[in-house]
Design a protein that fits this description.
Keywords: Chlorophyll biosynthesis, NADP, Oxidoreductase, Photosynthesis
Pfam family, one: GGR_cat
GO cellular component, one term: chloroplast thylakoid membrane
CATH topology of the largest domain: FAD/NAD(P)-binding domain
InterPro entries: BchP_ChlP_pln/prok, FAD-bd, FAD/NAD-bd_sf, Geranylgeranyl_Rdtase_fam, Geranylgeranyl_Rdtase_pln/cyn, Geranylgeranyl_reductase, GGR_cat
Helix content: 25-40%
Shape: elongated
Strand content: 15-25%
GO molecular function, one term: FAD binding
Length: 452
């Protein structure tokens, strides 16, 4: 698709379906003729709208357009990005062809600091020579992924989606109502991918159910050069009741500043109190710094009850794909978007066939759960065991001092699969963990947490 067509969606013929704000009843959208799932579409390709232009939506749109689907990518604000720590796993660089110049920092050292300020170096010995944690800015990554989706043929629509008309029959299209510069428009499509974040409108319209959300709050702070040098390749994680009752706080390096933040599920109303707590903990390291941006955002704590309904699928934060314990979501957002897009391409035979709910569940949802449900459950278990009290957090930091634990953690995080370790070392790790918990006198109280 030519660049001029991509940049000016108003010239697209489908925008003849617009509804003028002053006379909303004069124009109605042209309905598509839709056959049953598995039947050939006559004279056109399958039309899919992706709502949300972050890593999930952009990856879905790229996969759809590359596979022959007529693709529309809605993003209400292309100049902003979700507040985010910005760490991605190493495997994502190759898997998603992320250019190296987008990476701000190569983190090769991490410190985990306990409530009593016991610090453990995490990675200085256990990372291999070629390994690191890439740190980047979401505004940079999101823009790159959207542009790549456009290059693959997706049409970017810089518009706010206001309403979805759900089909009353299987043969009717979904109608997307959206607004561009206070002008109301509509678009008829065969299927929708909801990639519009934790407060997903798509999820609301398809009655996908609610989930528990944490809130993440962070400040971007520009430091003097000598203090920024300390965080050149270092990220810090802090645990303790003073910084979060059920999560952790962080200092992550960016291109020319650091992100200092925290998160919580159970005490959202006190998030600013915990933010003051982390800033007090790192006071000597950030003195003289200047706050250049303040950000807050909800983070889902578990998958939604419904992730596919009809010809609509949810991906990324909209689906609830953020891991417990670490709060990681960038990779899983991009991965779920790509998997969903590729699933639609397969089920529709490259856009030639109509798809249905069963296709989305079989090709996307079942494949996602088979690949990642164990990872999500395991990290949920770790959070319940180690984040519940200060004594548990002390045990967590003690366990993290074990080099084998560090190696297994990095293998799982950097390459996004549960690492297979040495059985004898695994047994020693289990007994070491139990020993740490016993020293903290919490085993009895936390045993129920091991029931998945």
């Amino acid at each position: 698709m030519a660049a001029s067509q991509i940049q000016n969606p108003l010239q697209n013929p489908l925008y003849q379906l617009s509804i003028r704000k002053t006379r909303p009843c004069l124009h109605k959208p042209h309905y598509l003729t839709i056959n049953a799932a598995g039947h050939h579409l006559s004279g056109r390709k399958l039309r899919v709208a992706v709502i949300g232009g972050g890593p999930a939506g952009s990856s879905a749109a790229e996969a759809l357009a590359s596979g022959g689907i007529e693709t529309f990518l809605f993003e209400r604000s292309t100049s902003t990005a979700k507040p985010c720590g910005g760490a991605i796993p190493l495997c994502m660089i190759d898997e998603f062809s992320i250019p190296l110049h987008l990476i701000d920092r190569h983190v090769t050292k991490m410190k985990i600091i306990s409530p009593s300020n016991l610090a453990v170096d995490f990675g200085s010995k256990s990372l291999r020579s070629h390994e690191y944690i890439p740190m980047l800015r979401r505004e940079v990554l999101d823009s790159f992924l959207r542009t790549r989706a456009q290059s693959a043929g997706a049409q970017l629509i810089p518009s706010l989606v206001t309403h979805l008309e759900i089909p009353s029959s299987y043969f009717s299209p979904y109608i997307i109502h959206h607004s561009i510069n206070n002008s109301r428009k509509t678009l008829a499509v065969d299927a929708i991918i909801g990639a519009d974040g934790a407060n997903s409108k798509v999820a609301k319209f398809i009655k996908a159910g609610n989930y528990t959300c944490a809130i993440a709050f962070q400040e971007r702070i520009r430091l003097p050069d000598e203090k920024m040098e300390y965080y050149q390749n270092l990220a810090e994680m802090y645990v303790g009741d003073d910084v979060s009752p059920d999560f952790y706080a962080w200092v992550f390096p960016k291109c020319d500043h650091v992100a200092v933040g925290t998160g919580t599920v159970c005490a959202k109303q006190d998030i600013k109190l915990y933010q003051r707590g982390i800033k007090e903990r790192v006071k000597s390291k950030i003195n003289g710094g200047k706050v250049i941006k303040v950000e807050a955002h909800p983070i889902p704590e578990h998958p939604r009850p419904v992730r596919v309904r009809g010809r609509v699928a949810l991906v990324g934060d909209a689906a609830g794909y953020v891991t417990k314990c670490s709060g990681e979501g960038i990779y899983f957002a991009a991965k779920s978007g790509r998997m969903c897009g590729e699933a639609i391409v397969r089920a529709s035979d490259g856009g030639e066939l109509m798809i249905g709910e069963d296709d989305l569940k079989r090709e996307y949802l079942m494949e996602w759960d088979k690949k990642y449900v164990s990872t999500f459950r395991f990290l949920d278990l770790l959070q319940r065991v180690f984040y519940g009290s200060n004594v548990a957090r002390e045990a967590l930091v003690e366990v993290c001092g074990n080099e084998y634990v560090q190696r297994m953690t990095f293998d799982s995080y950097l390459y996004k699969k549960l690492a297979k370790g040495d059985r004898w070392e695994d047994l020693k790790m289990v007994f070491g963990t139990i020993g740490s918990l016993m020293r903290c006198k919490i085993v009895g109280r936390e045993m129920e947490a091991f029931k998945l």
